[in-house]
């Protein structure tokens, strides 16, 4: 599959371009495109295998030793686009997993998914630079997995987030109050979710329970869609955002069968049409979708499809009696 024409920066300012009726709505009612394992556009094949290694990664490392990392790259990478490219394409939610490097001195933190990625600071600076040029755009940064991190690492990361984003960080508050109008007025552009007790008491760190992201953990698209439908029906009516993870997850058996093809060729590409059909049929709103994440967001017109779902909210408003 090839990258859709016009992926560029066509949606670099989509939030700032929304009609006033939508910018006045709670963000939890809008459809927002996100990426799964957002940072995996580059992984370091020369660094040690990460402490987050899953069962299938251990399997690869054990069975293939020297060749393992080359194979692991194909199964660890879930995105092709850099942070800037994802932002230009309209992605506004980032799924972030981080780790220290065991044995390395200091408190440096890296992105991780089986293999180590870039330093977290470099990624945050790239995002901050984009936000500086696009003042009405807002991002969700969801730090949901931590590996090989002691108390001092968390202090370092939380301080780093505050240093890089400063006054752009939105204070934890009632989710229902968070509209684009509210964020623009306060000049907030970043909502950080920090799924760890270390962030308790830090006003600009939102708790993980305000952004549930149910995980289907299946290789079968029909089971995935059933799961997405069920969890949407169970979505809280208030108090949190909601992430629909429109992703398939490989098992050891999947990796063994598609070893040389990799995640993209063996599992994602063949099932994308089914998954995208589900996305296209969704509606945002109180009982509808909010944030939707995907692997390889550049393989289809994913971000554009999700953003356009917000037009349904306009038509609903127009139908209301005056």
Give the percentage of residues in beta strands: 5-15%
The CATH class designation is Alpha Beta
Give the mean pLDDT: 89
Q: Any idea what the CATH architecture is?
A: Alpha-Beta Barrel
What do these coordinates show?
There is one protein chain. The protein has 322 residues and is an alpha/beta fold. It has one domain: TIM Barrel, CATH 3.20.20.190. Helices cover 38% and strands 13% of the residues. The protein has 11 helices and 9 strands. The chain has helices spanning 20-23, 55-76, 83-89, 120-133, 151-165, 180-186, 221-233, 252-257, 262-280, 302-308, 311-319, and strands spanning 32-35, 93-99, 110-113, 115-119, 139-147, 190-194, 205-206, 243-245, 291-294. Strands 1, 2, 3, 4, 5, 6, 7, 8 and 9 form a 9-stranded mixed beta sheet that branches. Strand 3 (110-113) and strand 4 (115-119) form a beta hairpin. Helix 4 (120-133) runs parallel beside helix 5 (151-165) and helix 7 packs across helix 9. The longest helix is centred in the first third of the chain and has 22 residues, at 55-76. It starts with 19 loop residues before the first helix and ends with a helix. Residues 1-7 have low confidence and may be disordered.
Q: Which structural traits does this protein have?
A:
322 residues; alpha/beta; TIM Barrel; nine-stranded mixed sheet; 11 helices; 9 strands; 13% strand; globular
């Amino acid at each position: 599959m090839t990258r859709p024409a016009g992926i560029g920066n066509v949606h670099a300012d989509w939030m700032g371009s929304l009609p006033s009726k939508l910018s006045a709505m709670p963000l939890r009612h809008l459809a927002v495109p996100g990426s799964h394992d957002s940072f995996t556009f580059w992984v370091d094949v020369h660094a040690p295998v990460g402490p987050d290694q899953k069962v299938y990664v251990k399997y690869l490392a054990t069975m293939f030793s020297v060749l393992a990392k080359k194979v692991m790259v194909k199964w660890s990478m879930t995105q092709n686009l850099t942070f800037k490219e994802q932002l230009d394409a309209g992605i506004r939610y980032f799924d972030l997993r981080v780790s220290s490097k065991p044995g390395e001195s200091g408190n440096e933190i890296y992105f991780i998914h089986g293999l180590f990625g870039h330093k977290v600071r470099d990624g945050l600076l790239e995002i901050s630079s984009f936000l500086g040029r696009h003042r009405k755009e807002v991002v969700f940064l969801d730090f949901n997995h931590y590996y090989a991190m002691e108390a001092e690492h968390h202090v370092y990361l939380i301080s780093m987030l505050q240093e890089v984003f400063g006054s752009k960080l939105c204070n934890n508050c009632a989710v229902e109050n968070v509209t684009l109008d509210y964020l623009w007025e306060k000049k907030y552009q970043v909502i950080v979710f920090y799924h760890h007790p270390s962030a308790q008491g830090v006003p600009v760190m939102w708790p993980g329970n305000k952004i549930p992201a149910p995980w289907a953990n299946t290789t079968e698209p029909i089971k995935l869609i059933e799961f997405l439908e069920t969890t949407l029906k169970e979505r809280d009516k208030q108090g949190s955002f909601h992430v629909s993870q429109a992703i398939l997850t490989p098992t050891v058996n999947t990796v063994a069968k598609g070893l040389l093809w990799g995640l993209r060729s063996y599992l994602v590409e063949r099932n994308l049409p089914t998954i995208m059909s589900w996305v296209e049929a969704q509606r945002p709103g109180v009982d509808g979708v909010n944030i939707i994440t995907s692997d390889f967001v550049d393989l289809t017109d994913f971000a554009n499809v999700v953003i356009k779902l917000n037009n349904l909210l306009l038509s609903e408003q127009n139908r209301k009696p005056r």
